[in-house]
Structures are given as C-alpha cells and as structure tokens.
Amino acid sequence: MSQDAVLITGAAGFIGFALARRLLETGRAVVGADSINDYYDPALKKARLSVLGKFDKFNFHKVDLAERRAAERIFAEGEFGPVVHLAAQAGVRYSLQNPHAYLDANLAGFLNVLEGCRHRKTNHLVFASSSSVYGGNTRLPFSVHDNVDHPISLYAATKKANELMAHVYSHLYELPATGLRFFTVYGPWGRPDMAIYIFAKAITEGQPIRLFNRGKMRRDFTYIDDVVEAVERVIAKIPAKTEPRSNGSLDPSASAAPWRIYNIGNNRTVEVPRVVALLEQELGRKAKIELAPMQPGDVPETCAEIDDLMRDVGFRPATSIEDGVRKFVAWYRQYHH
Fold first, then answer.
1. Catalytic one among 39, 155, 223, 262?
2. 155 a catalytic residue
3. Does the global pTM surpass 0.85?
C-alpha cells in the first residue's frame, strides 16, 4: 500500500463498496474499514466485501470507528493518502427509534476520524453529509449557498454537526476537508432500507407498498455510478481557501479554511409513484399501493442544485431514472434468484 491508496470507511456499505470497486478497477489501492453492523442484513455487506476481496490491492479491517483505540490503530498503521469517510448510522426513520446509535457512529466515530486525519496530516478528507441537512428549507432546488439551520431529524442534525466539526479541524489544523450532501442514491447493490429496494421487494412478494404523504413525494434519485464518478473527481480536488463575500459575509459552502461542501445529486426531481410504475414495468407485476400520511422527520420534495460541483470538477449526471431502475432490477433479480 502507498500514499496513493485511499482509506474508505464504510467500505462494506452501498456507496463505499461502489467507490472501492471503481478505484480498484482503475488499479488504485484501497484500505477498507467497516463494522459490518446489523442495521440491515450483514449478508449483503459480506457479499459486497467478497467482490472487493478478489482485488489484490484491497486491504480490509473490521473495525468500529466509535472505538477510539481501534480507530487510532487504523490511522497509525495504515498506508494511504486521502480518506473517504462514508461510515455512518444511516436512515432518517431509524433515528426516531434509536437515537444513541447516531451519537456513537456519526459523532464519536467522526471525531475519531478527524483526530486520525489530523495526526497523520491527511492530504484530503472527503466525508459524507446528506441532503437531509436541508430539513425545513423550502426553496428548491436545495443550494449549498443556503443556510441549513433547521434540521427535522436527529440523523440530519448529526450530519450538519459533521460539517461543522470538519470545519473546525480545517480551520485549526489546515486539514483539507470536503463534505458531500448525497441525494437519494440508488442502484445495484443498494441498501434494503431505501425506497426503491423496499418497493421492488414488496412488488415481487405481492406485499403492499406504503406511499407517504399520500403519494405526493418527489425525490432527486441519483444513480450509484454517477455518485461514484462525482466522488472520484472530488477526491482529486483539494479544497482551496476562499475569501469572504464583498459585503464581508461568509458563504455557507466555502471558507477561509480549506473546506467545502457540495451537493451530489441528479439535479432533477422524480415523483415517487413514477418510480413505482417503472418498477412494475421492469418486474412485470402490479404493485399493491397503500396511501399513508407524512412520516415525522420527512420532507415532501428534494432536488439538488449542483452548479458548484459541475464547475469545480466537471461532473454531470448521466443516468436517467428509466435506465437506473432497469439496471437495479436486473441486479435485484440476479442477487435474489
């Protein structure tokens, strides 16, 4: 392993796995870390790791980053340059029932990563934030230049906290850090707790689908290959310090420290019932639909403004929802045959 290698935390997770595989396919070495917890079926995480394990340049550590000593060992002993921190306790709804899991994974775990990066003088920390930080914001599309001070779930609050914690370390220790607000990522090897996977399983098994807000939900569905393309480009883009605006105010997405925030999205919004219809088409079965009220902590619509991302790294999403759903269903059938 070398300084060209990348440490990916959450390497057995959906985005971590896809990013690790892309980097390994290009010949880059990857150090993976993951606790393989049981928030969703660990068998899927282990299946992803078995794919990565076929690459000679993949080195995996089973570790809970909330355990300080274990995290310190990864950073003290591992040979790698950039760090991509994707390990987290995910899920808006789960945070309503299990708040302490978010404190441990998303705050204590992230602090241990920041400390590790600080002591080894990491050249770039790229970390996962979330579109959920926009919370009570109603202006669409969601812009990184808008304030995000009204989270409506504990999960969102921990992700906002991550952005602030990273900024402190960038300011105090000159740690280059880039936060990525992911918007509804989907595709092959996806998470079973995400809508498209839940819908596909229900349709296949003849179970009802619950559409919240009585089906009046729109999401910025972002295909996994597009996400990986964006993250790979961001890794190579070390954030620069920026000057305050001419009126002396600070831009929420940039800083006098080497710190930046980007949206990672598709820049278009799709009605959730449209996605159900596409799944019905690909699976060849009709869905049983139940209309339900809005869930606590949820929002009716998300849409990412990605102008900064396009300008700074030349990223443009390429996968339509039709192609993305088709590819997901092909994988789903193969995995669950």
1. 155
2. yes
3. yes
